[in-house]
Structures are given as structure tokens and as C-alpha cells.
Amino acid sequence: MNLFQSFPVAALSDISTNMWIVLGIIAAVVGAVAYGTAMPRNFPRNIPRVPLWKHFYIVLRGASKSDVYNRLVRGLIEKHGVVAFWNEGAWTILVTKPEYLVQIFKNSDRKLNKMGLAERIPWGSGAKLFGINIIDSDGEQYVTFRKLLKEGFCLPAPLDSFRQKGRDLAEKLLKNQTSTQGHNCGVLIGPPVWRWALSVWGEYFLDAQFDNNMDYRTFNIQQILTVQNKKFMGRLKGLFPFLDNLPFKWPVTAHSDRLLHEVQSRLLRLAEDRCRSPPPPDGENKIGFSLHRAREQNLMSEYHYQCNHKQLFIAGHENVETTLNSAMEELGANPHIQELLREEVTRNIPWDYSFKDLDQLPLLNAVIYEALRLYPPLGHMSNRIATEPYVLGEDIAVPKGMMLGWHAYGIQTDPHVWGETARKFDPFRWGKDSASVKQMLRQRQARGQYLPFGIYGRKCLGFNIAMQMLQSTLCELVRNIEWKHPEGYTFAYGKAALVMPDNITMQIVERRSEPEKLI
């Protein structure tokens, strides 16, 4: 008996019909994606384009932002200095050529405005978290925020407390190491470093301390975003933000929103509780008190009060957290540099050093600058919009309404700018003495080649205090402990928003020899 004769004709018909329906749905989806991702007609055609489908493929496969850059963008942008890049659901102009970066940051003709997440993706989680704040604002609003908050970034840092917190961090890392089983086991440095960052930030900006029992996995924002990006839908939403503007909420979005809401609630509650008591002597201009006073005097709305608190909290503690993590990663991978740094901070400055002493240590500062060069916390930002037709360089015609972005990780690891060892950790590239290190920093910033804290008129107000936090803590760490990677450790970039190593694991050893003390 013929098999096909025994198979019902109606069933074959149903299969054929269903197949065509499925193929039709697939074709419709592909067509919609192709239409929605088509490059605008007025997009400049004299710049190369990062392949869209390759971009989608490796992102959806779970590649980190740094891996996407290294695999797809680096070759094109190092040759041309600018590329067309799909970002946040639209084509943007991504720049690394130093001359173009200087033009963008100087913004001499005022044809570019800053545009934060609240304006770019107003329905997204980032907009709810950051809103309109001093970092994302522009024009008169930025001037107002800066006037109200600038003094809070210029207050003297509590050096004795910073020193103690650095020693506490060393002690915590050592304690974690001694509690592990196995001689060759290492410990994760991320959670203790995060708590250190919260502590120094809370003291300087709020005159308050966070609860030490907060869980790293549920209160660290980068960990929350990492969990989201491990989900396919989380990665897909990053490519197509409109998916969060549907009538329903995806489970991965609901989960991250709930955790982020708890983080911001704790922050605002801590700030409110502290402002119920008088500020400390000479501390009335701390950021927490300045924001509270501005709101009470109707100089700032409740919305802007909350947005600035949240943005400054996140930027303030995450920048020093990621930089210290990155510096420890590289010093663990380069023990000879770690030992040279240890010699510098034990032999060249007194035990009760000042910030002026730390500022004169060339290797200490070069290690921090080099960590920021290889791992700029904000590796990529597309937050400039052309408010009218704009010419980038000599012949790149940027239409009104087009977004422009810069890639700090890209320019700071470009061998055409930093030499053949651009992607290697080499703090000695900065100079042999304090004067040459500082001069190189100024030159690289002025030329648009070094961007971790911004340049020109929008340079980060917190740069100096961040440096003091990092200087004092690194000094205490190398004076009290040694660290190295355990056997089998593999480096990987984090998969959240910031450029930093992921799951850094170290073997921690106490410094047993008494260092030389200067009187």
C-alpha cells in the first residue's frame, strides 16, 4: 500500500496551510525589522557602517559591549575615525577620531545639545532611574544645577577616614581569603570593593552610611543589569528599546525594575533621614544637604531633587568602584608593577601621609590613569543631538535630530593614538616623575585622547575627590596586602553597562614584612 495514499489529503492540506502561515509570519517579522532598521535617507553616506546583522547576532549571543567593539567596530573605526552604529534602536554616528571628539566636546557653535535617557527613551528603566539631572542636562538647567551643587564637590576630603576605610577593605579581603577552603582558591573582590565605594561615597556626599547587610547581587546596579542582560529578552530590549513601551511588562523588566526601585528607595530614605539632623561643622554644602536645601527653598523640584540624588549616587560610587576593581585586576596580573607601587608608597611618603604626598607619587597616579584608560567606566555614550544641520570635521554632514556618540574605550585603546601597546597595561607610559605624569594627562585630555572624566566645559566635577578616594585606598591596599590571580583564572569583560573586568578573583596574602617608615 502506498504510504501517501494512506495519508489523509486533508492533513496534507492542513500542514501546507500551517507552513505557509508560519513562513508568512517569519517574512513579516523579517520585513518589519528590515524596514525599522533601514538607514535614514539623510544619514551621511561618507562614513562606513558597522554590519547590522552581525551586530544583532553577537549581541543576542551574549557578547559584552567591549567584545562587540573589539570584534565588529574596532577595525572600521580605527581606520576612519567615525562609523554608523546601531544604538538604542536607531542609527547613530559613533566617533573616536580625536579631532572630531574635541569638536564635539568644545561645541563652539552650540549646535549640539546633551540628551539624557529621559529624553531618548522616556519609557525605559534608565529614564525612570536617572531622569533629568546635572550630568544629562544642558543649557540654563545645567548652569542652575551646577551652581547649586558645585561646592559639594570641593569640600576637603576626610583623609583619616579614607585611610581607615582602605585598611578595612584590605582586612575584609584577607578575612575572606582565610575563610576559603583550599590553598589555591581565590576570593571575589567585587562585593567588598562595592561596599567600600558605598562607604566613602556615603560619608563624603551624604554624611551617612548605607546598611552593611545590603546584598551585592540585588543592590549593586551593575549586577542587576548583568542578570537582565543574561536573558535573551534583556539583550533584545537593548537593541530595540520600544519593546519596553508595549502595553505589558516583560518579566525580565519587571524583575530589574523592582530591584532598581528598592535601591533608589533606600538611597532617598537614607538622605531624608540624615537631613532631619543638622549637618556637621563645615558640612552644610555636602551634596545631600545642598539638594535638600534647594528643594526646601523651591530652587529645585521634587523630581529634580530625586533625579540628581540618584544620578550622583550611581556615577559617584560606581566610577571609583569600577576603577579600583580594574586597578586591582591589572596589579594582580602584573605582580612586578604591584611590588614597585608598594615600594613607592612605603619608602617615599610618611606613614601619616597627606593628599599632597599622594599627589606627588608618579606610579600611584599613573596606575589609576592607566586603569581608567583601559577600563573607562562609561566606555560608550551617545548623548549628543544635532539641534540644526551640523558639519563634523570637513565633510560629514550631520542632519538635524541625528544622535552623535563617543567611544572612550575605543579612543583610549587605539594603537594609532597610544602606540602598539595600546591594549596593554603600562603605567610607565605616563612618565617617570609626577610633573611628566600630570603634563601627559593634561595633553591627552586637551587633544581628545583621554575621556574617562570628560573634557572641556563638561569635565566631571567629581574628578578630584574620586582621585583622592582611589589614591588613599590603593596606598593602603598595597601597604597591607598582596594579591594575585589564582590558577585557572580567566579574564572576561562584564556584561552590564560599564567597561570593567567581570568576576575578578584574587588570592590575598597579608604583608608580613614591616615596611620602612619615613618620619
From TrEMBL:
<keyword id="KW-0503">Monooxygenase</keyword>
<protein>
    <recommendedName>
        <fullName>Cytochrome P450</fullName>
    </recommendedName>
</protein>
<feature type="transmembrane region" description="Helical">
    <location>
        <begin position="20"/>
        <end position="39"/>
    </location>
</feature>
<keyword id="KW-0812">Transmembrane</keyword>
<dbReference type="Pfam" id="PF00067">
    <property type="entry name" value="p450"/>
</dbReference>
<comment type="similarity">
    <text>Belongs to the cytochrome P450 family.</text>
</comment>
<dbReference type="GO" id="GO:0020037">
    <property type="term" value="F:heme binding"/>
</dbReference>
<keyword id="KW-0472">Membrane</keyword>
<dbReference type="GO" id="GO:0016705">
    <property type="term" value="F:oxidoreductase activity, acting on paired donors, with incorporation or reduction of molecular oxygen"/>
</dbReference>
<feature type="binding site" description="axial binding residue">
    <location>
        <position position="460"/>
    </location>
    <ligand>
        <name>heme</name>
    </ligand>
</feature>
<dbReference type="GO" id="GO:0004497">
    <property type="term" value="F:monooxygenase activity"/>
</dbReference>
<dbReference type="GO" id="GO:0005506">
    <property type="term" value="F:iron ion binding"/>
</dbReference>
<dbReference type="InterPro" id="IPR002403">
    <property type="entry name" value="Cyt_P450_E_grp-IV"/>
</dbReference>
<keyword id="KW-1133">Transmembrane helix</keyword>
<dbReference type="InterPro" id="IPR001128">
    <property type="entry name" value="Cyt_P450"/>
</dbReference>
<keyword id="KW-0349">Heme</keyword>
<keyword id="KW-0560">Oxidoreductase</keyword>
<keyword id="KW-0408">Iron</keyword>
<keyword id="KW-0479">Metal-binding</keyword>
<dbReference type="InterPro" id="IPR036396">
    <property type="entry name" value="Cyt_P450_sf"/>
</dbReference>
<dbReference type="InterPro" id="IPR050121">
    <property type="entry name" value="Cytochrome_P450_monoxygenase"/>
</dbReference>
